[in-house]
Write a structure and sequence with these properties.
Function: Isomerase that catalyzes the conversion of deoxy-ribose 1-phosphate (dRib-1-P) and ribose 1-phosphate (Rib-1-P) to deoxy-ribose 5-phosphate (dRib-5-P) and ribose 5-phosphate (Rib-5-P), respectively.
Strand order of the largest sheet: 10-9-11-1-12-13-2-14
Cofactor: Mn(2+)
Radius of gyration: 20 Å
Strand content: 15-25%
Protein name: Phosphopentomutase
Catalytic activity: 2-deoxy-alpha-D-ribose 1-phosphate = 2-deoxy-D-ribose 5-phosphate; alpha-D-ribose 1-phosphate = D-ribose 5-phosphate
Helix content: 25-40%
Largest sheet: 8 strands, mixed
Keywords: Cytoplasm, Isomerase, Manganese, Metal-binding
Oligomer: single chain
Shape: globular
Low-confidence stretches: none
Length: 396
Amino acid sequence: MKSFKRIMVIVLDSVGAGAAPDAASFNDVGSDTIGHVAHVYHGRLHLPNLQAMGLANLHHGGLEGVSVESQPIGDFGTMQEVSAGKDSMDGHWEMMGLPVMQALATFPNGFPDELINKISEFANRKILLNRPYSGTEALKDYGEEQMVTGGLIVYTSGDSVLQIAAHENVVPVAELYRICEYVRTLVNQPPYQIGRVIARPFVGHDAGDFKRTANRRDFSLKPTGETVLTKLQKMSVPVVGIGKVQDIFSGEGIDTAYHNESNDNGMVHLQHVMDTTPNGFVFTNLVDFDAMYGHRRDPIGFGHALMAFDQELGDVLGKMNQDDLIMVTADHGNDPTFQGTDHTREVVPLLSYSPRLTQCGQTLGRRRTFADLGATVLENFGGQLDNGTSFLGELQ
């Protein structure tokens, strides 16, 4: 088939489509992010564009308020993950042909003294907290102490992450970044090999109004091998990263990057790129679903964000050229009705659409790895990925 000039992938960060086959290994049996959000809305979840693309067709019996589409405008399916973890880095790397097969370090009892002492000595600041914690609860419980002492709120989760929170008026953002850059150098090798070091600046006057800002930055482990992004770059295919894509891949394989302040801002960036970059690969991450609603276990807010995205998706679909292909997916689940506050091991949606497709509504089935998406992108531009199976030929 004739290749597409431009492929756009939108990752709805954490919008899973039901428990993965290996969910039991992650204590996530019964998780279903999109299904449970729809249930909380009791039929009032209005997602006409995602519905038209076949979102409800992924669930047996559909979703409450989102009907099974008899004639979807595109092809649809799901993808399951083979990576050892369920973090954003694992999911995005696997999509780009680099699954994380060896589990990265996690710290259910907090970080070891050796690591904490090095951070404290470098920053010349006291370390507060140091254990698994909800980010918003960490601000409520330790934010005022941080402002008084100038210390650093260090915490983790079930994922391979080390997060550092500090008030922007107490620890300037540039200083927090410098500290995180140093920590990144400490955790690139076992036994402390960590996927992401995350700077979490916040503002506010007291525990009642502390708020994390858009100055968050992820300092990720550098890709341990070649990705679809770097392969495309070598082939002189323009690669644009929107949102935290730049951070997740440590800038490798990205020609142009846009930082998002919100999901809405990310969709504005996407439309700008559509106006200015007529060919190539555009990789977008929308993190609000995860950061603002999934981890905070807020299904109502999650649903509102989905409906807002759906409206903006309609604008994007309306702007597409005949030789454009768009794919909407996710990197993991984060069921806001589930136990705890961590990501959930789920399959993810795979929704594809192009104005030029004539035989729409075909199922892409259950893809055995997220890497099938990367294989499809790479084949379109004339390359080949060994550890993924392209479905380009199924899009007709």
